[in-house]
Design brief:
heterodimer, A: 326 residues, alpha+beta, Ubiquitin-like (UB roll), Fumarate Reductase Iron-sulfur Protein, Chain B, domain 2, 3 domains, 5-stranded mixed beta sheet, two-stranded antiparallel sheet, globular, B: 292 residues, alpha/beta, Glutathione S-transferase Yfyf (Class Pi), Chain A, domain 2, Rossmann fold, 4-stranded parallel beta sheet
């Protein structure tokens, strides 16, 4: 029989019992790990061989239930999918296992996921359609129609993207990447009738798509490679396509780029801020503008650089534009 | 070694709000005999906002930007993480979707251009480290940064998504990037280990959600300060605008002083090469930094 290579790994594991511990602590466990072992195997070994009180969520072991998501050295992982050997490649032989959301830990790897589900339920994450209660046959949609979902129906609600999102971390109102992906999933479903209702929800300033910081943490965190941020971009696009874009700082910020490129090729930074904020709103930026001017960080309108061959740019903008902003 | 030559995608901030990035980039390129051919036809990359408004238009304009590097037969270097991401994303999408590429080329043909996919896109940081070489850089150091504890701040758009940047950006792992740390060490400095080195600065919501932006950058800065950094360094002018220009607003939001000098990556390299601070545009930085 072939003998498998093993590697000795030290796991520093977050331990905490909300009912009895004042503070969390880290406990070390060393194991000889084989090349096919995943993080879930390690969680099982800790519980079965070292400490029966160790707690974590698990169910399917096939990357489909989303229960066993945790963080290893701050990298969001689905325990049942993540090979320890792959993690050693990145982080070396000491791996730190922590729950997704330390601040809401209940016991060891188990967290209170209420925050996540609350946001999730806010976007009508279900099909809104007049479907007969007792249909005579299936409602068949074509492959082309199914492709519009771009696999967003594969989301397993593991929460990795949500708990990796820095905007979620500092803004309790932000809906976050998982719920936004779900809004996209039903908005592109040909059977659904609630697209505009959902766009209304995700178009809110302070909680919706405009609060995405574009860090791509969600794209890296998703164990299903669904790139939630790309679906967030598509929600932005839907808002403009459906003529639902409000005239505010966030929408003007996006549109302002097109206007600048059309005029100069380059972005006119000063004009973008003025246009986005409006003539009154821009006043709050005066103190930093003075500071920038003194340090030679502001140019005058007549110094604005221009790209060469702007006629091409003009032609392409006329020919390729797909939307209009009032 | 044959002299390196790239198509230089300057982007918008080096010609406006970060002149020091332009000066320091050109100064160290000169020192290393790296030829940067400015892509004078290029437009703004859309800064990951224009695609929210009109994704297809944004893609076509970035395809056009890349065409001008292809015409010159050169690899593009960017000096801004967000330019890097937007160009690399356009390339990734076009190289992986024949139908989309044909649609874009249909449009580009109206102005006599064709996107072929022959030019690589990499950030200047990786051109220095991987093409010029970390050892070659180390051998050119005249004033080692030996007493400096420097916190590398990588910025999102150079390292995520990993798949998009790939080998062009040194296959950097987004959860454990090493390029800036290695560069700091090669320049004789101490790289500071801290949790936020690969985190977001919040720049992209600065206008519509300043509170969010300030809290996000504040968290990173406090982390660097608590880990006893003398300065932070970033390869991205947008991170720089946030951490440097907005420092007062960030302190106010955090209710804590987050004062710390912020350097652009090429400024740091230039100082170690012994280039006069004036020639690296140090005077333009809002946060003052002195290096004896």
């Amino acid at each position: 029989m072939k003998k498998y290579d093993t590697k000795k790994v030290n796991f520093k594991v977050f331990r905490f019992n909300k009912d009895t511990d004042r503070m969390p602590y880290y406990q070390s466990y060393s194991f000889d790990v084989a090349q096919d072992e995943v993080i879930l195997d390690i969680l099982n070994k800790i519980k079965w061989e070292r400490d029966g009180s160790f707690s974590y969520r698990r169910s399917c072991r096939h990357g489909i239930c989303g229960s066993c998501a945790i963080k290893v050295n701050n990298k969001p992982v689905l325990s049942c999918k993540e090979r320890v050997f792959d993690l050693i490649e990145i982080f070396g032989y000491e791996l730190v296992l922590e729950p997704q959301d330390i601040k809401n830990a209940i016991k060891d790897m188990v967290i209170d996921k209420e925050r996540f589900w609350h946001k999730y339920s806010s976007v009508k994450p279900f099909l809104v359609a007049n479907i007969e209660a007792h249909p005579k046959s299936e409602y068949i949609i074509s492959q082309k129609e199914a492709d519009r979902l771009e696999e967003s129906d594969y989301c397993i609600q593991c929460g990795n993207c949500f708990f990796a999102c820095p905007s979620v971390e500092v803004n309790g109102d932000y809906i976050g990447p998982a719920a936004l992906l779900k809004a996209f999933r039903f908005n592109v479903d040909v059977r659904d009738n609630a697209k505009r209702d959902r766009l209304d929800i995700v178009n809110q300033e302070g909680s919706g798509v405009w609060d995405c910081v574009k860090c791509y943490e969600c794209a890296e965190a998703c164990p299903k490679d669904l790139s939630p941020i790309d679906k967030i971009t598509k929600l932005h696009n839907q808002i403009f396509e459906e003529n639902m874009a409000k005239d505010n700082v966030a929408t003007r910020h996006a549109v302002g780029f097109k206007d600048s490129i059309e005029k100069h090729g380059f972005l006119d930074e000063g004009e973008l801020v003025r246009y986005s904020e409006g003539n009154m709103g821009v006043l709050k930026h005066v103190p930093e503008a003075i500071h920038m001017f003194k340090n030679g960080k502001l140019i005058m309108p007549w110094q604005m650089p221009k790209s060469q061959k702007l006629d091409e740019v003009d032609k392409l903008i006329k020919s390729c534009s797909t939307v209009k902003f009032k | 070694m044959e002299n390196l030559k790239y198509a230089f995608f300057v982007g918008c901030t080096p010609k406006q709000s970060t002149p020091e990035l332009m000066q320091s980039t050109l100064a160290i390129a000169r020192e290393f005999n790296i030829e940067l051919v400015e892509l004078v036809e290029a437009t703004c990359c859309g800064a990951s906002h224009m695609q929210d408004y009109d994704d297809f238009l944004s893609l076509v304009l970035n395809a056009r930007n890349i065409c001008y590097a292809e015409k010159r037969g050169l690899t593009i270097v960017t000096v801004c993480n967000t330019c890097q991401l937007n160009l690399a994303t356009a390339k990734y999408r076009l190289d992986h979707d024949e139908k989309l590429k044909n649609r874009v080329n249909d449009k580009l043909s109206e102005v006599g251009l064709e996107y072929k996919g022959t030019s690589e896109i990499k950030h200047f940081l990786y051109a220095l480290i991987d093409d010029y070489g970390i050892d070659a850089i180390a051998s050119r150091v005249k004033k080692p940064l030996k007493d400096l504890y420097i916190a590398p701040f990588y910025g999102c758009h150079n390292i995520r998504p990993k798949e998009v940047h790939g080998a062009s950006n040194g296959n950097e792992d987004p959860y454990r990037p090493t390029s800036l740390d290695r560069l700091i060490t090669a320049l004789g400095g101490h790289s500071v280990e801290y949790e936020h080195k690969n985190k977001c600065c919040g720049f992209h919501v600065e206008l519509q959600a300043p509170k969010t932006a300030n809290k996000i950058s504040g968290g990173a800065m406090l982390d660097a300060i608590e880990n006893r950094a003398d300065t932070m360094v970033t390869p991205c002018p947008l991170c720089h605008l946030r951490l440097d220009v907005q420092q007062k607003n960030i302190s106010k939001e955090m209710g804590e002083d987050v004062s710390i000098p912020i350097l652009h990556m090429p400024q740091m390299v230039g100082l170690a090469l012994g280039i006069e601070p004036d020639k690296l545009g140090i005077k333009h930085n809002i946060t003052k930094f002195t290096f004896a």
